[in-house]
Design a protein that fits this description.
With 367 residues, the chain is α/β, with parallel strands linked by helices. 43% of the residues lie in helices and 18% in strands.
């Protein structure tokens, strides 16, 4: 679909949504609808698209704008031409992503892909940024509205596994991205983290490193466990020796604590540091400089994810690039297959996407 047509489609989706909300009584005569900025953020639409939708409804006398006060329901225009069969929520796809914090750095590609694919089919995409505390409550609240589907950036825990069982029992369609419960048959689109970590370890070995330290946060997330396993397998296959694995708290650590870890890595003779994600690797580059160590001459540093800033730091980071847009695309395809009643095998519903090694300046042969 051409860019101009995508914009028109998004405008029509928002017009239908507002009319259905008026029709089902969510907005009554005299009520103010949310402002352009709120609607833009809530539905991940450009403000110009939101303005076009509102202007069209004002032109049809469904809404009226009061200068300095807002936009209100008139009760005069006819909303039925905009309302199509099925409820508003049955055409809504809700995307749950981590935030605020580091998760936003990697999750935006998922949202962009889901939004692009689902908007083309006339679905409205809502984004919900969650913290660990409000995740279950937020998903339950949204699922009660019978959405077309959920796309969930999954974080594993006993409570979250129980939530997934509830969704399945209620026949709520959902696809997991980034992580998944290893003992389930749920639909998911994730990276092949094992292969990615294996390839990075092999790359460091081929540069000449024989003592490599791997830092992980010790959580039970499938993505991180698979990266750890990939590092261990590569170390074994390449006969590097006993893998040097350092676990840090999942809640993170202050710079002074991280400095102690880096000093330990330096003291054990490691010439390369492989961090479980880019954010930690980028911090390591900065702290190693504080220790008067050169990256990569004194210590090579590698990460995982390929966040935007990885290529822009003082020593561009060697990392494994994940295809987050691809994750979102596959999730959207699985959702549409389910909506259209297309039968699928577990291999079609459980997708692992390849990662790509990005060779940059933070890794070199040891001196």
């Amino acid at each position: 679909m051409e860019a101009s047509n995508i914009g028109i489609a998004k405008k029509e989706v928002l017009k239908r949504l507002i009319c259905e909300q008026i029709g089902n009584g969510e907005y009554k005569v005299g009520d103010a609808i949310p402002g352009e900025r709120v609607l833009s953020l809530k539905h991940n639409m450009a403000r110009m698209t939101v303005r076009m939708a509102i202007d069209a409804l004002i032109n049809d006398r469904i809404l009226k704008r009061s200068q300095g006060k807002g936009t209100f329901v008139t009760g005069e225009g006819i909303v039925s031409p905009y309302v199509t069969p099925g409820t508003m929520q049955s055409r809504t796809v809700s995307v749950f992503l981590p935030g605020p914090g580091d998760g936003i750095l990697v999750s935006k590609g998922v949202l962009e892909a889901v939004y692009e694919h689902m908007s083309e089919s006339g679905h409205l995409v809502n984004v919900h940024y969650f913290t660990g505390r409000n995740f279950v409550q937020e998903v339950r609240s949204v699922s009660e509205l019978s959405p077309a589907a959920l796309v969930i950036w999954y974080q594993d825990s006993a409570q979250n596994r129980m939530l997934l069982r509830e969704l399945k029992e209620k026949n709520i369609r959902f696809v997991l991205v980034d992580c998944y419960p290893s003992d389930s048959d749920y639909s998911y689109a994730v990276s092949d983290n094992f292969a990615g970590a294996y390839e990075m370890t092999k790359h460091l070995y081929e540069l000449g490193h024989r003592k490599i330290s791997y830092i992980t946060d010790g959580s039970n997330a499938s993505s991180l466990m698979e990266r750890r396993d990939g590092f261990i397998r590569a170390a074994s296959d390449l006969k590097i020796g006993k893998p040097e694995i350092i676990e840090i708290s999942p809640d993170g650590m202050e710079d002074r604590q991280f400095l102690k870890v880096l000093k330990k890595i330096r003291a054990n003779g490691s010439t390369a540091l492989f961090a479980y994600n880019d954010v930690l690797a980028i911090r390591a580059v900065g702290l190693l400089k504080e220790m008067k160590l050169r990256v990569p001459e004194d210590m090579s540093v590698a990460g995982f994810d390929d966040v935007d800033m990885a290529k822009h730091i003082s020593v561009p980071l060697t990392t494994m690039s994940q295809d987050f847009y691809g994750m979102g695309s596959r999730a959207a395809e699985m959702i549409m297959d389910g909506i259209n009643g297309k039968p699928s095998s577990s291999t079609e519903r459980q997708c692992k996407l390849g990662t790509v090694l990005k060779r940059r300046m933070s890794c070199t042969s040891p001196e």
